[in-house]
Design goal:
With 346 residues, the chain is of the alpha/beta class. It folds into 2 domains: 2-220, Alpha-Beta Complex (Spore Coat Polysaccharide Biosynthesis Protein SpsA, Chain A), CATH 3.90.550.10; 235-343, no CATH class. It contains 12 helices and 11 strands. The strands form 2 sheets. Strands 1-4-3-2-5-9-7-10 form an 8-stranded mixed sheet. Strand 3 (47-54), helix 2 (61-66) and strand 4 form a beta-alpha-beta unit. The protein is globular. The two termini are 23 Å apart.
């Protein structure tokens, strides 16, 4: 089912849009409604929106039909995975640049105005921006956002910091030029496909830049169980990337796994030797709480930031350890669990 819904001034724009916004969707009707509403409020509308429904059982077509003031194209295809869905959009995009958002993003009203200004001043082939938590998000969503962006966890890079390794745009807020697409191509179907794409772009000699003012509000997972599943798979995918790019695995990527091992050792020592071995963990949890309290000014968010950070580190670390054992030590490839999650675009 291919549906083109053009609502910009009531007719199809006659000139090529500067940006093509690409959004793969899998059973996310409410998220798509919020995303399109935020795009309709942009101060500069030099973009088209292309949404592809990747075999959803609850399509978002009604949300697309409700969108006003923007050029939206909607496609429905069988479920093959989010990377294939993005490539499907790329083949149909008309823009000079391709912008990738996740369906659970809300875009600030000046995003495209800021992005246009920054690209005009400092042209680059590929770019990305940080994410933040909107005031309307739940305390759990804000706590998860803290965990995914704090320097006390593995989230420093996602939060816009580039000191630990080279900046890698993520597909919740990423873009690259048509020239990049024509040479590098589309996404590969895998977890951490954005890291893979960024690596291929950099290896092809293109420039990659962090545009800090071009941030988005990212809802992420709405509960801790889904968040755990997500970061667990992130940890597994880091080993997949190491197999694709042998030199890509850095010491910083193993820190969550090391933290898990140290945490287990401290817990065992506290049980069999002395409870004082729990002191380092207590100090770390206190640091998370205080840092979250200062940044969010909310006791409720700070309290949830502690378990969110533990989940983020332990989930990632356990996924990393499992994948390292299976794929490096035992030499096995992608497991069935990973294959199913990729296909469903989780």
């Amino acid at each position: 089912m291919d549906i083109t819904k053009t609502v910009t001034d009531g007719h199809q724009a006659e000139v090529r849009p500067r940006f093509s916004v690409i959004v793969p969707v899998y059973n996310r009707i409410d998220e798509v409604r919020d995303l399109l509403d935020s795009l309709s409020r942009q101060s500069l509308k030099n973009f088209e929106v292309i949404i592809v429904e990747d075999g959803s059982t609850a399509p978002c077509l009604d949300a697309v039909r409700e969108a006003e003031g923007i050029d939206v194209k909607y496609y429905f295809k069988e479920n093959e995975g989010r990377s294939i869905a993005r490539n499907y959009c790329l083949e149909r995009a008309a823009g000079e640049y391709f912008i990738f958002f996740d369906s659970d993003c809300v875009i600030p009203p000046d995003y495209f105005s800021v992005l246009t200004r920054e690209l005009d001043a400092n042209p680059t082939d590929c770019f990305g921006g940080p994410d933040s938590a909107h005031e309307s998000f739940t305390t759990t969503q804000k706590a998860i956002n803290f965990a995914m962006t704090s320097f006390l966890t593995t989230g420093g890079i996602r939060g816009g910091k580039v000191s630990l390794e080279k900046f890698v745009p993520r597909t919740f807020n990423m873009g690259y030029s048509r020239r990049v697409y024509e040479r590098v191509g589309g996404f590969r179907e895998m977890f951490s496909e954005d890291i893979d794409m960024s690596t291929r772009i950099r290896n092809a000699g293109f420039s990659i830049a962090l545009i800090r003012p071009a941030f988005v509000y990212h809802k992420r997972r709405v509960d801790f169980r889904k968040f755990l599943r997500q970061v667990y798979v992130f940890g597994m995918s880091r080993i997949t990337l190491k197999l694709l790019y042998p030199g890509s695995l850095k010491a910083v990527h193993a820190l969550p796994a090391i933290a898990v091992i140290i945490g287990v050792v401290l817990l065992l020592l506290s049980i069999f030797v002395s409870p004082w071995f729990l002191l380092p963990l207590a100090v770390y949890f206190l640091a998370i709480f205080v840092t979250a309290l200062v940044s969010t000014r909310s006791v409720a968010i700070a309290a949830k930031a502690v378990p969110a950070s533990v989940i983020q580190i332990c989930g990632y670390g356990c996924g990393f350890i499992k994948a390292y054992f299976l794929k490096i030590i035992l030499g096995k490839g992608r497991d069935v669990e990973e294959e199913i999650l990729i296909r469903k675009g989780k």
